[in-house]
Amino acid sequence: MAAHLCRREFLTLAATSSAGLLLGWGAAHARAQVAGAAPVLHPLIHVGTDGKITLFAQNPEMGQGVKTSLPMILAEELDVDWRAIRVTQCDWDPALENQFSGGSLSIRLNFTAMRMAGASAREMLMQAAAERWKVPVSALATTAGRVIQRGTSRALDFAELADAAAALPVPGKPALKAVADFRLIGRSMPDVDLTRIVSGQQLYSLDLELPGMLYAVVKRCPVSDGQPLSFDGLDAEKVAGVVDFKMLRNGDFGGRIILPNSPNFVSGVAVLAEHSWAAMAGARLLRVDWQLPDTLDDSAQLMNSYDDALTERGEVVRSDGDVETAMRAAAFRVDEIFRLPFLAHVTMEPMNCTADVGSDGIVIWAPTQNPEQTAVAVARALGVAPQEITVKVMRSGGAFGRRFYADFAIEAAILSQQVQRPVKVLWTREDDIGHDYFRPSSLHRVKAGVDENGKIVAWHHKVASHSRATYLERDGSPAEIGNYEFPAGFIKDLHFEYVPVPARIPVGQWRAVEHSANVFVFASVIDELARKAGADPVSFLRQLIGNRKYVRVLEDFQFDASRLLHVVEEAARLSDWTRPLEEGRGRGIAASYNQGSWVAEVAEVSVAGRQLTVERMVAVIDCGLIVNPAGARAQVEGAIIEGLSAALMGDITVKDGSVQQGNFHDYPICRMHHVPSLEIQLIDSDAEPRGLGEPSLPPVAPALCNAIFDASGLRVRELPISRYLSV
Amino acid sequence: MIKLTVNGAPREFTGDDEMPLLWYLRDELKLKGTKFGCGIGQCGACTVHFNGEARRSCVTPMRAVGNADIITIEGLAGRARLHPVQRAWIEENVPQCGYCQAGQIMAAADLLRRNQQPTDDDINTNITNLCRCGAYYRIRKAIHRAAELSRADA
Question: What's the pTM value of the predicted model, to 2 decimals?
Fold first, then answer.
């Protein structure tokens, strides 16, 4: 994969993923027939003995709507009535490709594969009908779950053909519908679990109960990498319902990182009990002697280390032209430092997992974004083959990157194996915040120059931060800045450099990952340069993006700049950018390309004294073809509000090795009254689907801070905004 | 022994009376609709109706529940299939992950009982439940819609 593609940027999605699917599919298809199961037209398309068609939702559902949208694609090409089918979540299936939810990739990576799956199944059904009626396939058509012979009254339900169809070979190249013929894709559909959710019937992992199950709460070392030496359960065991204690030392099970990019459970002592409250009460009363590591992290000291790191030579991520010389020719310059804090995920459903490791099999009920990592990591911990693990994927109460890791699954599996009963490990909110994998803090120093015509002529960008790649022991570059990130490719003399600063504080993927920090800096500096040059920020952006359709950002990356310009223009139009605002009110714009999508956002704020009010957010996003508009819109609303929480108030601090925050009173997030008026425009497009779960988050902070500057003259370069203003 | 009514059914509790009502509902009565989000009354995912008023069950110990009439999300609709708030929630396709939604619905139903025509400001002040996915915009819209549906029903 070319260097400019972050691990999750793929250019040739359709070609690689669909071919792979068919190969894997063929094997799974053969396997299913041999097993004598009900007719399986595809691992994701089953016809039951009751004639009911079941479509399996391949990817984990965490509120981003893929349990609805991926089956919609299957249903479209299969040609079934959406109301007549049922959707079931898919267990982990190693024969399926890309069975994970992350990187805003669920639709992007699987769109063509889902279409081909549905279309192939449809062709097999038509072939079966053709053979039964002894007519050519060309004489047949499908309509809402039936095969018909054109010009006759002959018709057969898919259910009646399924057995025969399942025995046929899988077509190599099924014909796909023309986009113009889509009847389901592009229509707003309600979430498949909607009624269950509103009536309180939807079960999440934390709700699961199994016969004989024990509840466990782990008393975890308050300091990262600490280990339990001994414990005293004298008071804890007096709690009615507490039945056992188990020491959990990750050193006994592969260490802190069990596999590259896969953190292990956090060491501690588990309190096992008959019900949740007993486990929680027991954990509070348990006394543990900890072996602390020899160094204890402090987030403020770490930020100071970043300052020192700026003097070191880092990894040069991108270097174009001669920045030093170009800077001398600048009419106006900025030389500023930006600081961003650690951020927590705080999914509404705290971490938890249920495992049943018994003689007749290993089953993990995991609220996971990554079923494969769950299986592989648990297998490693238990010393078995991954294929022996059944991962039942649960709908999760939010994930945002946290549930990509298997730590919470590993500890449940180990405990279950030790007590030979099903075990649910539940995390308190304090456990959840105290032992998160945070969005890393960072320091950015940007020196940039603009000429008297408003053209950016030089950009030197150095980042120092705690690196996820380093912490998670991933191969490859530690850099938290990418060589393709806008405005790279648009400024002739530009330099990106990264200095990793190792720390113990656990870090990992948080929604929009590195873009959650970098876009704040890019879009703030662009605004500062515009102001220095006396230019209107929208005009300045127009000039920066330019009029070329394509800009060769990298050797093998032709960036469609016209789509970025378009969202900027639309955001300016929608926000009525040129309308004068009253005193104390301001506007700011930020544009970004991330997760494959083009997005521009305008914030409108009022600042009265030290009080900030976010009045309005306008967002325009081009993410290509949209499968479920209602779900898509929800993703943009949600990402904006999450970006708002982070920008306004998100701040995790660590002192003496311990996370200082524990619950929503000291790690607040937005409430209803913080929500501004939201205006969202999704660009209507037939182009290939891009990412949507994350892209709308990064522009929020810079749009806000640019608006705050416009309203008050205060330039915020260190987040969260609550450091400077009441929010 | 503590006696109470839950969704119309008489119940008796004889355990640790410091235990929050939330865990009695979930672990003893197996009513999983009321959720655990924080344990300190900050998020509202545990909202139930306690003698007709919204209350956060994670900070309501069983010793305070004697003779109380508790309604959970499972009992909100009463004999109807769905409460107007639930119908509005469906119309507006409100939930994303859905985990906070039962609490939001219980809080909304309580607001509408007290105020049949809430303004946006009324909603902002009264609905303080947290939603991490950011469905607030639709929650507000659905509350307005639920108010309309309730007036139409009446």
Answer: 0.95
